[in-house]
Design brief:
- This protein is of the alpha/beta class and 697 residues long.
- The strands form four sheets. Strands 12-11-10-13-14-15-16-17 form an eight-stranded mixed beta sheet, with helices on both faces. Strands 1-2-3-4-6-9 form a six-stranded mixed beta sheet, with helices on both faces. Strands 5-7-8 form a three-stranded mixed beta sheet.
- The protein binds (2S,3S)-3-hydroxy-2-methylbutanoyl-COA.
- (2S,3S)-3-hydroxy-2-methylbutanoyl-COA binds at residues 22-23, 25, 60-65, 76, 97, 99-101, 104, 123-124, 127, 131-133, 135, 273.
């Protein structure tokens, strides 16, 4: 018997305790331990078996690290069938998060009890697969078809009370899983409770599966697993037998296991957990942060203050005058009202935050006791320098001075203070209290414990924090500028902005680049182009159709017209006919003969531009690892999670094919399509971005 499962006899009960930290994943040792435990209990003539998990949780699922490797016996489906077929009653006591294969083991048990704090679910769709050990066959039998479909296609973690109401568990009790499990099992033995295999329960009621399939597929925006799960639950209702249903589930499961989307989503799962773990910070302790300062109460400043307040930090917000302070407070109040509405905070918390935790001031002296300040003022270097000089004067020694700039040079900002080692970039994304991404921008002199504090703050604000070096646009905006340019060039050369938006939403983005530009405001890009114009390399192609829109006062959603025309109360916009005129004029002025772009070509150029710039960002060390870039695009730029990120996508395509296309495009525009040296080196050495991730561990 392996250590992963400890066998113990307590009277008539054989107790199988899982000991596989951190989450009792159902790896091979656990599976073998469970099988041996069931067989031993039968052989010893025990009256019942109790299964529970030591540590923080019952089984949190199959061991994801085993995916893609040859499956070792017993597999989970066979183990679940064996547990269910046991000659004696099997009881599972759930605590923590009983997820995926974990809930499937519980459903193959005859009775289930849980602590009130327990959560359970079948979240496999988030990994690009479906439950593969009978979950799609057993859950509908206990909870009904609709309830099971909702849990499986959303992958939601359901609380014990709701699970009880749905019939997923039989009992809820306070205590620890071992004692609660033992008491319940004794009670069942005293009542001579029968074995109660779920597989013997009647097949669940069928519903209109085709309609449900289409609805779930549309909701997935290209992700397949939730829709495929509908077909598996359909088998539970329509298959001639339970085992035939399990067989159909397995076929669908194995198909998804081989899919690119499974690879993309598993990559996202582990990268999301790895991205904030930097080897150089292992032994570095962050500074304490209890009180925060925010400079500027505009949309970004108010969002940052809201995120901090919701995380339990006290906030001092500085604005230039009383009127601006009042406006800042109203913005924060609006954000908090949204959190109140979503049940994230209670009314009393709402009141306490606004009346006690949040302080507004116009004098920097009010910052004398804060531990960390984030500046979120107008994107102008002179203004930033003045603010940091004032912070240097008023903030206490050891206070961290952070800038929320989205592209200015943090080294130059730090130079405006006498303590550059305490200066760092903390680049939030709008709305800052909602968007998960935080770029932690490390300047040349930023001290390691200041970096560690940036990451600790990110964790406290429930952000996905990614380390970035200093360059124009850091990781995200720099890469975005590149794929945005590729889109503009395709339009100048004949593609329609609406075709490009359609292709990218078909790829899985919620919005295409031109709709996003309208949402963000075309005036922002216009200002950036004007700022860059004096130093523009003469070899760089320039498009003017966007400037023409702005010169006409069309800035997108905020003015009701941009690339699209927006009508009050209507979702989305309709193509703005004027755009075509501006494009034709731009083509005429630049002597461009428009050409037809196939949708595949549009996607390829867009993604090649993204991957090429991303490879430069990694090659220059701005991003430490390819997975850092992937997480930035996932959590800050709406990149479809099921592809795993642009560099995971590039691996799935084959970096050599990407380089081949970039070299082909370079024949048209050698300046824009300069291949990334890292990409050329990787292809020459036959390495992938995943190889680079592994080497960076
Ligand atoms: N396998 C392997 N490692 C896992 C794991 C798993 N299932 N779950 C978590 N870990 C690792 C994780 O990488 C991290 O490692 C550490 O545990 C703590 O996790 C047939 C095939 C359980 C809610 O999808 O959702 O069953 O970074 O940082 O925030 O149908 O982890 O410390 O080295 O996330 O408290 C279905 C996935 C699998 C659940 C805990 N199960 N896990 O969250 O901690 S597919 C899941 C989670 C399946 C069957 C199929 C969360 C959590 P490290 P953490 P947390």
């Amino acid at each position: 018997m392996t250590e992963a499962i400890v066998y113990e006899r307590i009277g008539d009960i054989a107790v199988l305790a899982a000991q596989n930290p951190p989450v009792n994943a159902l790896g091979i040792d656990v599976r073998r331990g469970l099988l041996a435990g069931i067989e031993r209990a039968e052989k010893e003539g025990a009256g019942a078996v109790l299964i529970y998990g030591e540590g923080r949780t019952y089984f949190a699922g199959a061991d994801i690290r085993e995916f893609g490797k040859p499956m070792e016996e017993p597999g989970l489906p066979d183990l679940c069938n064996r547990i269910e077929a046991a000659k004696l009653i099997v009881v599972s006591a759930l605590h923590g998060t009983a997820l995926g294969g974990g809930l499937e083991v519980a459903l193959s048990s005859h009775y289930r009890i849980a602590l009130p704090s327990a959560k359970m679910g079948l979240p496999e769709v988030h990994l690009g697969i479906i439950p593969g050990a009978g979950g799609t066959q057993r859950l509908p039998r206990v909870a009904g078809t609709e309830a099971a479909l909702e849990m499986i296609t959303t992958g939601r973690h359901v609380a014990a009370a709701e699970a009880f109401d749905k019939g997923v568990i039989d009992r809820i009790a306070e205590g620890n899983p071992r004692e609660v499990g033992l008491a319940y099992t004794r009670e069942l033995l005293e009542q001579n409770a029968p074995r109660r295999p779920v597989c013997d329960m009647p097949a669940p009621e069928p519903i209109d599966f085709d309609a449900t399939y289409e609805r779930v597929l549309a909701r997935g925006r290209g992700q397949l697993s939730p829709a495929i799960a509908v077909r598996a639950v359909q088998a539970a209702c329509e298959a001639p037998s339970f085992l035939d249903g399990v067989r159909q589930e397995r076929e669908l499961f194995m198909k998804l296991m081989e899919s690119d989307q499974r690879q993309g989503l598993i990559h996202a799962f582990f990268s999301e957990r790895a991205v904030s773990k930097l080897p150089e910070l292992v032994d570095v302790s962050p500074r304490d942060v209890a009180a925060m300062g925010v400079i500027g109460g505009g949309t970004m400043g108010a969002g940052i203050a809201t995120a901090a307040l919701l995380a339990g930090l006290s906030v001092v917000l500085i604005e230039r005058d009383e009127a601006a302070s009042v406006a800042a407070r109203e913005r924060i109040e609006g954000n908090l009202r949204g959190a109140l509405k979503r049940g994230k905070i209670s009314q009393s918390q709402f009141d306490a935050i606004l009346n006690e935790t949040l302080k507004l001031a116009t004098d920097y002296a009010a910052l004398s006791q804060v531990d960390l300040v984030v500046e979120a003022v107008f994107e102008d270097m002179d203004v930033k320098r003045d603010v940091f000089a004032a912070l240097d004067e008023h903030c206490k020694p050891g206070a961290i001075l952070a800038s929320n700039t989205s592209y200015l040079d943090i080294n130059d900002i730090a130079a405006a203070t006498s303590r550059p080692s305490d200066v760092i970039g903390l680049h939030f994304f709008s709305p800052a209290h909602v968007m998960k991404l935080l770029e932690v921008v490390v300047a040349d002199q930023t001290a390691p414990d200041v970096v560690a504090t940036g990451f600790a703050l990110g964790k406290r604000l429930k952000k996905t924090s990614v380390r970035s070096g200093v360059c124009d646009g850091f990781i995200g905006n720099r890469i975005m500028n590149s794929y945005r340019k590729a889109a503009d060039y395709m339009v100048l050369d004949g593609a329609s902005p609406y075709q490009i938006d359609k292709v990218m939403t078909g790829f899985g983005f919620a919005m295409g680049p031109f709709a996003v530009a309208d949402l963000a405001g075309l005036d922002i890009g216009w200002a950036a182009r004007k700022r860059r114009a004096p130093t523009l390399d003469p070899r760089e192609r320039v498009v003017h159709f966007s400037d023409m829109l702005c010169e006409g006062g069309d800035f997108g959603q905020k003015t009701g017209r941009g690339f699209y025309v927006y009508e009050e109360g209507k979702r989305g916009g309709t193509p703005n006919p004027q755009v075509a005129e501006y494009i034709e004029r731009d083509q005429r002025d630049q002597g461009v003969t428009p050409q037809i772009f196939a949708n595949d070509e549009v996607l390829r150029r867009y993604m090649c531009a993204m991957v090429n710039e991303a490879a430069k960002v990694v090659g220059e060390g701005i991003a430490r690892r390819p997975l850092d870039v992937d997480m930035v695009l996932l959590f800050g730029y709406g990149f479809p999670r099921f592809w795993g990120g642009p560099l995971k996508w590039a691996d799935l395509q084959g970096p050599d094919s990407i380089l081949k296309d970039i070299r082909r495009y370079a024949k048209e525009d050698a300046f824009f399509w300069q291949p990334a040296p890292l990409l050329e080196q990787m292809v020459a050495e036959g390495r992938s971005f995943d190889d680079l991730n592994k080497e960076a561990r």
